[in-house]
Amino acid sequence: MTVVHVGVGPLSFDDVLAVARHDAPVALTDEAVAAIEQARKHVEHLASAPTPAYGISTGFGALATRHIPSEMRAQLQRSLVRSHAAGSGPEVEREVVRALMLLRLSTLATGHTGIRLQTAQTMAGMLTHGITPVVREYGSLGCSGDLAPLSHCALALIGEGEVRDAHGTPMPAAEALRAAGLEPVELEAKEGLALINGTDGMLGMLVMAIHDLRMLLRTADVAAAMSVEGQLGTDRVFAADLQALRPHPGQADSAANLARVLADSGVVASHRGPDCHRVQDAYSLRCSPQVHGAARDTVEHAAQVAARELASAVDNPVVLGDGRVESNGNFHGAPVAYVLDFLAIVAADVASISERRTDRFLDKARSHGLPPFLADDPGVDSGHMIAQYTQAAIVSEMKRLAAPASVDSIPSSAMQEDHVSMGWSAARKLRRAVDGLTRVVAIEVLTAARALDLRAPLAPAPATGAVLALLRQTVPGPGPDRHLSPEIEEAVDLVRRGAVLAAVEDTIGDLR
To answer: Where does this protein reside within or beyond the cell (predicted)?
Structure first.
């Protein structure tokens, strides 16, 4: 497996995904080693000076006024990590913890934190050997960094607390380190603070959400095209000259995708003639590019913010090139928190329009000749009636998840930290929203495929036909009612792992 090299420059999205989701090993570059060693010299100089320096020879937060004598500073760092590892609730997903650790290591590698090389190398070793600290759901306010989550990782670094090994087996951190041939770190001046003071958790979740949403939005275009086709809608509204009248780039890309996916559809061609008297389609069909496109543009704005954050060195205090160690507010999570909230809004609205398209298939007054609820024997069979209920329940929750976390703030640390971002909370709810969008789009694909089967002998477009063929490998076509939940989960899996999108792109080339 390719090693991800962590240097003084920013990591890429692909680097984060490789380590977080695909267990890529990690190594520091020579430039990072030099930068870390140079910054450490400045910290050690300040640690030996009689003048107090925040984070090096003082307490933390509201306790920063106390000067800590040199013989107590190792205890200071241990106490900081132990006391701040105060998370509670369910375990956070392995991929999130690995992303968090990688991004903290990336900041350490810039040479602006004053960490010792041994400490950074041990963190890289934990990632390479698949040692994942147990991090709990609650504990971060998204300011002064993701303190509690990062502290649980730092706790494992010093050989305390609980971790899971590469096989997912829970065990004490000291045992996992020993099995990997790693020595627990004895923290020295400033190291505890450098390990816990960053936006790494919320940033890691943002990077993964952006990757997932980029795929899901292209899949939503496929689902929308299937719905337009199955409901005898028109593709004329997706013409490039119409989209150019409102030149949002995401809208143009989404409309182009819809037009390409619907190309050469026998179903669409069947009602293009003079006998078709429908004036225009419902908003959920006709305005799909406008909604999906706005979502795309918002995702790309979030990606710009994430790229800037990946290029940042987030710590307090920081070591500057001239040796100064200065306090700052770069740990505040507001820039990341805002876009995490924006993306939860995006996910909710794309899911909402997907559910509306699905619902139109099930109402005989609006489905243009399809049986009620796409049932085999309406009345005896219920068809996809309750699949839409499931969509509606998910969309309703997603609307609640779209309420922003970043507008909230609860003061902490005796009012020293009196305004916080709640960015971690924004990231946690976005993960649930991305899962919800996956499920809603999957149910639309499943329902639209059933409708297209019912349009036979009219032939679907080659692209939508490829999705239909993919589904039919594991999910039977129309017929009497069956246990529907497993079929929904199969469709969810196909959407989540990109198989639906791949079926289209293997047929007509890459979508935008």
So the answer is: Cytoplasm
